């Protein structure tokens, strides 16, 4: 099926709402899925061999989902996440992100989509060592071409506050614990009010207590309406997600809801409204 044939009301402005003001379920019903991919393949051409890393993946992810992507090493998880993150292009197949057919975009448009609509969280945090926490949070704004000023600085400070780093603004990554660095990376991922957060093993370098703290933070973001796709190989971590997709040999083997996701503490309406009011101020 060609993705253009999917019907939805494109007059409804997607993603810009406050959960507290509106009927969340009703919004989900009228909004296009965040991700629609159809028969996606990715082949790597090495000297004499072709590696078929993805061999026809189809997937729809709706607004507000929290998906864990699992599977053995080499099954194609990172390849799929890279395509979802517009960091690479598929060999064939379609990928529609929100309203945009990104599988046909050139590099410039892809990087624009990345900086406007996506937030990334990596296993090794990827904060720039020479910059402070607040400067690291500003980086996606620079990629978007925003001029940094007092207002944008305040936005970054608010996000640092939201993840509990309000008293570490001037610290550099080396002066922070792993969990604090990952919280900084989450704040950075939130600065552009992303439609979709992509996380590759976000707790892979953390002890189990800190991992739980980071997962609780992701759960709170999800409760506030953020859509999350997270690669993990740990069952304990996938147990937080609402849906678990298992890959094998470049295809989706199992795609099922998690009937009893782990419950996070602190998913308060205060957090949800704090996040939403921050997001509604985000500059496009
Ligand atoms: N840049 C690349 N060039 C060639 N082969 C690659 C490249 N990236 C990944 N692969 C191959 O594609 C397959 C899937 O890799 P990957 O997506 O990294 O799996 P996973 O993240 O599940 O471990 C593996 O066989 C891997 O060796
Ligand atoms: Mg991988």
3D structure, described in words:
The protein is of the alpha/beta class. It has one domain: Rossmann fold. It is 33% helix and 23% strand. Strands 6-7-8-3-9-10 form a 6-stranded mixed β-sheet, sandwiched between helices. Helix 4 packs across helix 5. Bound molecules: adenosine-5'-diphosphate and magnesium ion.
Rough outline: globular
Helix content: 25-40%
CATH class: Alpha Beta
**Molecules bound to protein:** adenosine-5'-diphosphate, magnesium ion
Over the alpha carbons, how many angstroms does the gyration radius reach?
A: 18 Å
Please provide the ordered H/E string of secondary-structure elements.
Answer: HEEEHEEHEHHHEHEHEEH
Please tally the β strands and state the result: 10
Rounded mean pLDDT is 88
Q: For the record, give the distance between the C-alpha atoms at the N and C termini, rounded to a whole number.
A: 32 Å
Question: Runs with pLDDT <50, length 5+?
Answer: 1-20
Report strand order across the widest sheet. 6-7-8-3-9-10
Largest beta-sheet characterization: 6 strands, mixed
CATH architecture: 3-Layer(aba) Sandwich
Number of helical segments with 4 or more residues: 9
How is the quaternary structure best described? Answer: single chain
Strand content: 15-25%
The CATH homologous superfamily is termed: P-loop containing nucleotide triphosphate hydrolases
Reported by name, the CATH topology is Rossmann fold
What count of domains describes the coordinates? Answer: 1
User: What is the structural class?
Assistant: alpha/beta
């Amino acid at each position: 099926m060609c993705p253009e044939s999917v019907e939805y009301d494109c007059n409804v402005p997607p993603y810009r709402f406050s959960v507290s003001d509106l009927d969340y379920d009703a919004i989900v019903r009228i909004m296009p899925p965040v991700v629609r991919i159809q028969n996606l393949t990715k082949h790597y051409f090495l000297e004499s061999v072709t590696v078929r890393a993805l061999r026809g993946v189809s997937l729809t992810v709706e607004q507000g989902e929290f998906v864990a992507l699992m599977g053995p090493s080499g099954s194609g998880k990172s390849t799929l996440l890279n395509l979802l993150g517009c960091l690479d292009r598929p060999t064939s197949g379609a990928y529609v992100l929100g309203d945009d057919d990104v599988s046909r975009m050139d590099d410039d448009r892809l990087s624009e989509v990345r900086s406007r609509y996506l937030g990334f969280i990596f296993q090794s945090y990827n904060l720039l060592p020479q910059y402070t926490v607040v400067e690291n949070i500003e980086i996606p704004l620079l990629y978007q071409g925003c001029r940094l000023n007092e207002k944008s600085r305040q936005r970054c400070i608010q996000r640092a506050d939201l993840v509990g780093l309000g008293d570490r603004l001037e610290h550099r990554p080396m002066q922070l614990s792993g969990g604090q660095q990952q919280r900084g990376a989450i704040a950075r991922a939130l600065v552009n009010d992303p439609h979709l957060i992509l996380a590759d093993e976000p707790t892979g370098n953390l002890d189990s207590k800190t991992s739980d703290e980071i997962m609780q933070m992701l759960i709170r973001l999800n409760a506030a309406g953020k859509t999350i796709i997270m690669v993990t190989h740990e069952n304990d971590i996938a147990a937080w997600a609402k849906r678990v997709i298992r890959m094998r040999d470049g295809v989706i083997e199992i795609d099922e809801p998690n009937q009893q996701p782990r419950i996070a503490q602190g998913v308060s309406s205060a957090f949800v409204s704090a996040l939403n009011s921050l997001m509604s101020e985000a500059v496009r």
